[in-house]
What does this fold into?
Amino acid sequence: MTTPAALRLREALGNFVTGITVITTRSEGELHGLTANSFSSVSLEPPLVLFSLSRTADCFDAFERTEAFAVNVLRSDQEALSSRFATKNVDKWTHVGWRPGYGDCPLLDGAVATFECRVTARHEGGDHVIYVGEVVEFAHHPGAEPLAFLRGRYARVAG
It folds into this structure.
């Protein structure tokens, strides 16, 4: 149950504009993914990124067992894809175009940028685990507009 203080904190944090990503992995042959805006760059030398994952996420166990993940930064017209991967107990992969990347992690078609990562650390973070990954491959599409999130809804960014 979310407390009133936690709800107020969430509302305040919602004033920070974030990009929308789908974090993916393959564990024991199965594909897993979730929508996340808790993605950040950590370091350029060495190239490190992080994301945090709720312990209650349906794919939590899969991410705990894997040593690789991919970050797919969504394009402004990929709201439906974001919503699909944010929904529990649905088939997230039917009719979704992707190709295998590092560790066979799915790289989603049409993403603005992709980061293929090797897990280097897991840190306790309250009700989340923070995953740090070394970027082993990446790609981006200059000029493509990313999908953003602000105050609890999708937003457009001027670039």
Observations:
- The chain has a mean pLDDT of 93.
- Residues 20-150 form a domain with the Pnp Oxidase; Chain A fold (CATH 2.30.110.10).
- Residues 4-13 form the longest helix (10 residues).
- The chain is about 15% helix and 45% strand.
